[in-house]
């Protein structure tokens, strides 16, 4: 049996063994996997199914996290070096160089005075910790009646229970679950916006005024019960790759300040350059009280996230208001040295080891090239009658249809054209690795346009 035959057999065997054994994200147990991954390097995956081998560009960036590509020599070296030292140690009462260095890097990169760091297992857990912190902050100040959060319609913040509670209760993915704890307040979704090629934001000013008036009125009516506001800045990911004007963030910041609320921004998907600024909140010049980051943090190698907060927030728990208290969360793998070491290497690649906001920081050039490439590559989709909208923001490209995507058919058609994507709702979108070349983005876009045309028509 030659190597090619052996590889195909391996992939088919994995698919057969997986079927009915493993759950996959947002799928029934019998749905199984569509393809087996037998290799990955750079921006490409090697997939196997019953029809053979497919080499595809990973348009999903491994769910938005693999920003430097697969098998990156710098990240590989960081992982190997840390394994040769120690791969894990409890964080309770102990510390280590990778965690301290990572916290220092994050504080140096973060906007404003976000200067205290909690290292979490995943993005959802960082949101859980953020929500706990906000409640403890108010409790420490004697505001025990502040138990609710205001969140935006269309928002998504994770799949754990407290995070589910601040996700859109109707249009989200958690409608089947009873809401735990206090019922949250949902502000209307800000009107859609678009970033032009020239760098200005376009949106309907009249609609924005209506939104602002309603948001301010709702918050004011419930202010004594509210502890904080949580939002994904500028880009709502799982809520439909929905882009709204940065001006809305400034309104949320003003509402929070007016009613003594804490502003929590979920930068898990948008952080580290993805939207064209280092953090999406910087489009608005807004600094949150609490910020969550994840996904690209380790370059997609290991699960890790972080919650950052200001001294004002941390000080409440540390006795600034007369009551010292621990932040009541402590995961077993908190501050995992292996994940922290790779995260340090990943952030080093993004910044080039220098000022992350410098004009020559590597992420800037990469995202600018991605944005230009995606605009050119996806533009032909706008001519298809099946397409409702085409939009690009930084390293995010979206084709929105007039109807729900035929998931299986479009995925298979894209794979045949050389691209891996995972559509949802009426969206075919990409968030590719930052290192993708112009030719790779051109191929990716052509594959998406061809898949839409083949399945949904021209």
From TrEMBL:
Pathway of action: Cofactor biosynthesis; biotin biosynthesis; 7,8-diaminononanoate from 8-amino-7-oxononanoate (SAM route): step 1/1
For molecular function, the Gene Ontology terms on record are: adenosylmethionine-8-amino-7-oxononanoate transaminase activity; pyridoxal phosphate binding
Q: Which residues bind substrate?
A: 63, 156, 295, 330, 422
Catalysed transformations (reactions): (8S)-8-amino-7-oxononanoate + S-adenosyl-L-methionine = S-adenosyl-4-methylsulfanyl-2-oxobutanoate + (7R,8S)-7,8-diammoniononanoate
| Cellular component annotations (GO), alphabetically ordered | cytoplasm
Residues that hold pyridoxal 5'-phosphate according to the record: 123-124, 266, 331-332
Which cofactor does this sequence's record say it needs? pyridoxal 5'-phosphate
Query: Which top-level group of life is the source organism from?
Result: Bacteria
- What EC designation does it have? 2.6.1.62
Q: Outline the subunit composition.
A: Homodimer.
| Family designation | Belongs to the class-III pyridoxal-phosphate-dependent aminotransferase family. BioA subfamily.
Biological function = Catalyzes the transfer of the alpha-amino group from S-adenosyl-L-methionine (SAM) to 7-keto-8-aminopelargonic acid (KAPA) to form 7,8-diaminopelargonic acid (DAPA). It is the only aminotransferase known to utilize SAM as an amino donor.
Q: What's the protein here called?
A: Adenosylmethionine-8-amino-7-oxononanoate aminotransferase
């Amino acid at each position: 049996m030659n190597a090619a035959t052996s590889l195909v057999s391996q992939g088919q065997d994995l698919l057969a063994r997986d079927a009915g054994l493993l759950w996959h994200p947002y799928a029934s147990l019998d749905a199984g996997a569509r393809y087996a991954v037998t290799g990955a390097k750079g921006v490409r995956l090697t997939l196997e199914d019953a029809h053979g081998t497919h080499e595809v560009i990973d348009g999903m960036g491994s769910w938005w996290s693999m920003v430097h590509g697969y098998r990156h020599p710098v990240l590989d070296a960081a992982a190997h070096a840390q394994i040769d030292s120690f791969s894990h140690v409890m964080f309770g009462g102990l510390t280590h160089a990778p965690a301290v260095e990572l916290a220092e890097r994050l504080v140096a990169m973060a906007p404003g005075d976000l200067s205290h760091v909690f290292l979490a297992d995943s993005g959802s857990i960082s949101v859980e910790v953020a929500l706990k912190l906000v409640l403890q902050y108010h409790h420490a100040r004697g505001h025990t009646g502040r138990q609710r959060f205001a969140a935006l319609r269309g928002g998504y913040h994770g799949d754990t229970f407290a995070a589910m509670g601040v996700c859109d209760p109707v249009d989200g993915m958690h409608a089947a679950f009873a809401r735990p704890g206090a019922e949250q307040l949902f502000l209307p979704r800000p009107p859609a916006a678009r970033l032009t090629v020239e760098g200005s934001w376009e949106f309907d000013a009249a609609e924005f005024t209506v939104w602002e008036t309603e948001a301010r009125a709702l918050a004011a009516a419930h202010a004594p019960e509210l502890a904080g506001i949580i939002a994904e800045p500028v880009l709502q990911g799982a809520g439909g790759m929905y882009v709204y004007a940065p001006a809305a963030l400034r309104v949320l910041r003003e509402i929070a300040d007016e009613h003594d609320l804490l502003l929590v921004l979920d930068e898990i998907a948008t952080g580290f350059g993805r939207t064209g600024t280092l953090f999406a909140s910087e489009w608005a010049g807004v600094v949150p009280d609490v910020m969550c980051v994840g996904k690209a943090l380790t370059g997609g190698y290991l699960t890790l996230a972080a919650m950052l907060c200001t001294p004002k927030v941390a000080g409440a728990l540390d006795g600034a208001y007369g009551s010292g208290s621990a932040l009541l969360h402590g995961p077993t793998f908190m501050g995992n040295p292996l994940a922290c070491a790779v995260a340090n290497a990943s952030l080093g690649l993004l910044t080039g080891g220098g000022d992350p906001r410098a004009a020559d920081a590597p992420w800037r050039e990469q995202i600018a090239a991605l944005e230009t490439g995606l605009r050119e590559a996806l533009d032909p989709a706008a001519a298809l009658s099946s397409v409702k909208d085409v939009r690009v923001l930084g390293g995010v490209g979206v084709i929105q249809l007039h109807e729900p995507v035929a998931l299986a058919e479009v995925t298979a058609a894209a794979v045949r054209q050389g691209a891996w994507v995972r559509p949802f709702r009426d969206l075919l979108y990409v968030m590719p690795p930052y290192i993708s070349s112009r030719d790779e983005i051109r191929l990716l876009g052509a594959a998406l346009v061809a898949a839409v045309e083949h399945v949904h028509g021209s």
